[in-house]
């Protein structure tokens, strides 16, 4: 047996896949080039609602290098499934502008692109509706919101409590549609052989893609293999399969050759999902000391006509602050728009922008420091579920962050601090994210030549999951990380849950640890002897998760922002951004800090820049590229830092960890908006904080 090594978890281990990435040896989905490869390019609808009457397929088939034009009249038939987003090219109906109506296949990408450009499609257009408004007559109450939360909640009598409250905040906040824009496109290489279908796919869940694609093509799951060892960012957009996966498989089946298909940047704005826009009304009632008596949070959102996706926008309000009277609700309208999907911290991100902005408005109305107001409304148990918290260190984050940020002595008066031609202000917001743990499987193998191989179909989407899992396995096996080979990103490996919901380390780590523990037990029984064929153990965590006791499990944080607003132009610059977090045990400080800062940078981008603009006349997003859809760049992030407090929580998982991939974004936009108010005296309730919203507001 190998000598017991020093613990790896808790150390800042460099990424184990770093050399592959920086030298270009890491192969992403689109970089797989099987023999006899053909290229596919999609053709998108140019109407927002209606039917395809005809496709002039023959005209482009005469072009050099063309192999096939596939549309609803000649496409292979797919098995009927509930998810209409995936039943592509099965019907003449057009549900939104940009929906795929045809796909062309050619010998080269250039030929396919030219054919797609020239393909003529005749439509029977119908009037469309793409405008989200809270008074829309089509608003309805969905059965549940993502992933399976109750649509509404109510305790006490919030309307009466609001009527008798000494201080009331009643405000409406809006967030626009936002698109993921990962650097790696949504791409798939599909090939069929005697064993079935193989997909090289850019995905956050190889197991999930297999489970979704197999029934579409009437295949048993074991006949579909999904390979994705490296993913160049996902942010939730690659959490579930979209049209391009099905189209690649469908086209490859039709032409009898491997097919490569990638959604272009512009196509991505229609066919790979987005964060739904929201309209949110928040009402807070409190006494003169800022103690909340009532919280009402209502959200209005959009979904597509072909598929429902209901963002859990107000769910976060159900557990954040103590108040005896409370109500939350979600209402949805089906519009002729693309299908929304998960985007980093779905629900919590837009929901906390509204709630934390309203809390800042309450602090101003009561004349109470914003940090102190939040502390005064700290609950002792989950306010709506009535469950104890496994751990809740929000107050520690607020106090610790305030001390490090230099919050003490902050002048609450808005619009009075100048630095040259800039107005200076500071703001704070709380953040939180639930602790999820999903069933997964893993195997651990002692190799006869020495070392260990651990296998799980997890996805490393750039977060460092492969590295952290290596550390967990190394500690369980009592060896240095260099002796562990971690295999991920292949549906042929033991089944793993999706890389989403900040659940990866908790879900996969539990399975990896249990498999390694089983292997250590087997080795102990053999006195450390490894047979010539190796020795393997496996684990399935489903039963362990079913037996965990009911608690309210969440990570917490507090973001602090300092902004400078140009007196002449209204330009906002974030001068400092600090996050304080309580996220259980930190397995790798280096990857953790990277994720927290990355989330906060994305929150800054949400606050100041990101906005998908809908053209109401044509029913399409106008700014469909990185030249017009603006995201934060290095120059926008002047001084950003994150730290965490030590937190022990034995009721989470064997590692004691909480997810950190998403909590960084949650409170950032509100902290920045609150700082802008402190700087200017102008309350911006509609994101992003554009120049015209400040200049027009009287800066």
Automatic annotation (TrEMBL):
Gene3D superfamilies: Aldehyde oxidase/xanthine dehydrogenase, a/b hammerhead, Aldehyde oxidase/xanthine dehydrogenase, molybdopterin binding domain. It holds the Pfam family MoCoBD_1. Keywords: Molybdenum, Oxidoreductase. SMART domains: Ald_Xan_dh_C (SM01008). InterPro entries: Ald_Oxase/Xan_DH_a/b, Ald_Oxase/Xan_DH_a/b_sf, Ald_Oxase/xanthine_DH-like, AldOxase/xan_DH_MoCoBD1, AldOxase/xan_DH_MoCoBD2, AldOxase/xan_DH_Mopterin-bd_sf. GO terms for molecular function: iron ion binding; oxidoreductase activity. Residues 23-127 form the Aldehyde oxidase/xanthine dehydrogenase a/b hammerhead domain. This is Xanthine dehydrogenase.
């Amino acid at each position: 047996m190998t000598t017991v090594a020093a613990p790896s978890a808790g150390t800042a281990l460099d990424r184990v896949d770093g050399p592959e990435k920086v030298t270009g040896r890491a192969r992403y989905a689109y970089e797989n080039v099987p023999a006899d490869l053909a290229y596919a390019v999609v053709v998108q609808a140019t109407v927002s609602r209606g039917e395809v009457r005809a496709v002039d397929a023959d005209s482009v088939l005469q072009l050099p290098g063309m192999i096939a034009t596939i549309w609803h009249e000649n496409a292979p038939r797919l098995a009927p499934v509930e998810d209409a987003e995936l039943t592509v090219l099965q019907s003449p109906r057009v549900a939104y502008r940009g929906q795929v109506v045809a796909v062309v296949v050619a010998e080269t990408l250039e030929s396919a692109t030219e054919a797609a450009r020239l393909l003529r499609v005749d439509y029977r257009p119908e009037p469309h509706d793409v405008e989200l408004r809270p008074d829309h007559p089509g608003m309805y109450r969905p059965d549940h919101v993502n992933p399976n939360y109750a649509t509404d909640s109510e305790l006490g009598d919030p309307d009466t409590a609001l009527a008798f409250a000494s201080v009331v905040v009643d405000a409406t906040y809006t967030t626009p549609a936002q698109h993921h824009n990962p650097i790696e496109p949504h791409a798939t290489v599909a090939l069929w052989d005697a064993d079935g279908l193989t997909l090289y796919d850019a995905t956050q869940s190889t197991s999930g893609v297999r489970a979704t694609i197999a029934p579409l093509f009437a295949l048993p799951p074991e006949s579909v293999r999904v390979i994705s060892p490296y993913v160049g960012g996902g942010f939730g957009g690659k959490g579930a399969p979209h049209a391009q996966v099905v189209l690649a498989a469908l086209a490859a089946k039709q032409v009898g050759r491997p097919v490569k298909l990638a959604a272009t940047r512009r196509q991505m704005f229609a066919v790979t999902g987005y964060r739904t826009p929201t309209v949110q009304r928040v009402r807070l009632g409190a006494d003169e000391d800022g103690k909340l008596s009532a919280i009402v949070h209502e959200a209005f959102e959009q979904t597509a006509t072909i598929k429902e996706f209901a963002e859990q926008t107000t769910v976060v309000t159900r557990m954040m602050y103590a108040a005896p009277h409370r109500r939350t609700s979600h209402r949805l309208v089906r519009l002729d728009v693309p299908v929304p999907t998960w985007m980093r911290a779905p629900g919590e991100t837009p929901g906390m922008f509204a709630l934390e902005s309203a809390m800042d408005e309450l602090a101003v109305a009561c004349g109470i420091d914003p940090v102190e107001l939040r502390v005064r409304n700290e609950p002792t148990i989950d306010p709506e579920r009535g469950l104890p918290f496994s751990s809740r260190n929000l107050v520690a984050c607020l106090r610790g962050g305030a001390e490090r940020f230099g919050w003490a002595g902050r002048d609450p008066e808005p619009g009075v601090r100048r630095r040259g031609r800039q107005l200076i202000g500071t703001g704070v917001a709380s953040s939180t994210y639930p602790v999820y743990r999903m069933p997964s499987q893993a195997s651990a193998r002692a190799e006869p030549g020495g070392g260990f191989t651990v296998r799980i179909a997890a996805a490393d989407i750039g977060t460092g999951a492969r590295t952290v899992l290596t550390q967990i396995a190394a500690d369980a096996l009592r060896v240095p990380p260099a002796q562990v080979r971690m295999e991920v990103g292949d549906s042929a490996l033991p089944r793993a849950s999706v890389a989403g919901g900040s659940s990866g380390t908790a879900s996969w780590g539990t399975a990896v640890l249990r498999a390694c523990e089983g292997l250590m037990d087997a080795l102990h029984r053999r006195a450390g002897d490894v047979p010539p064929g190796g020795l393997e153990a496996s684990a399935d965590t489903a039963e362990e998760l079913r037996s965990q006791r009911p608690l309210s499990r969440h990570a917490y944080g507090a973001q602090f922002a300092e902004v400078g607003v140009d007196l002449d132009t209204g330009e906002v610059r974030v001068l400092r951004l600090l996050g304080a977090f309580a996220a259980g045990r930190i397995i790798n400080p280096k990857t953790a800090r990277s994720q927290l800062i990355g989330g906060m940078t994305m929150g800054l981008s949400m606050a100041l820049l990101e906005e998908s603009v809908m053209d109401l006349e044509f029913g399409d997003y106008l700014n469909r590229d990185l030249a017009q859809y603006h995201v934060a760049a290095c120059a926008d992030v002047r001084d950003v830092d994150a730290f965490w407090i030590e937190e022990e929580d034995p009721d989470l998982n064997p590692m004691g960890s909480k997810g950190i991939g998403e909590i960084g974004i949650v409170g950032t936009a509100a902290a920045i908006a609150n700082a802008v108010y402190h700087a200017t005296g102008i309350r911006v309730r509609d994101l992003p904080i554009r120049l015209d919203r400040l200049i027009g507001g009287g800066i």
